[in-house]
Amino acid sequence: MKKIRAILENLDAIISGVSLTILVCITLAGVVMRKVMGQPFAWLEEMQLFFFIWTIFFGGSVAFRTGGQVSIDLIANRLKPKARRVLDMFDYIATVLILLYLCKGGYDLMMSVSGKVTPYFKISYTFIDMAAPIGIVLMILQYTLMIVKEFKGSWKMSDDSAKKGDESL
């Protein structure tokens, strides 16, 4: 049961990792086939597109879970804890609103290409584009879980310091 839970908790990392590995392998194989053998793969571009999109959106979810997204925290690190929590909450709200907007756009795109298929493998673009709304929803969930943990920790520290302050009086 623990193994199944670990797989489910890391499914986004597994999907993005496998997608990235396949993307790199087929790209290298494509270069060898084109430059060395003179026989390029006709299907390479559509598979690169597929694996690139899935790598990006599921990898984004992993970045939100691990706190690996790019940030410039020069100002934030100089703020007092209370002001930092306000800034973090503003950042969270702004990020979620942007992600919701992007999710809607991804969903609309996914629905608008429902009849379109790739030329070689006949894969529906809906399947390719569904990575965007799914990955974005996972990003929102991961970021929400991270911010809740962070705020619980900072509230606990505030409560502990308040108690220590009361004890010293």
Question: Mind explaining what this structure looks like?
Answer:
- The chain is elongated.
- It has one domain.
- The chain is mainly alpha-helical and 169 residues long.
- The protein contains six helices and no strands.
- α3 runs parallel beside α6.
Spatial extent as radius of gyration: 22 Å
What level of helicity do the residues show? over 70%
N-to-C span = 50 Å
Count helical runs: 6
Largest sheet, in brief, is: none
Quick structural gist:
This protein has 169 residues and is mostly helical. It contains 6 helices and no strands.
Can you lay out the helices and strands and say which pair or pack?
Layout: H1 2-9, H2 11-37, H3 44-66, H4 81-112, H5 125-129, H6 131-168
Question: Keywords, please?
Answer:
single chain; 169 residues; 6 helices; 79% helix; disordered C terminus
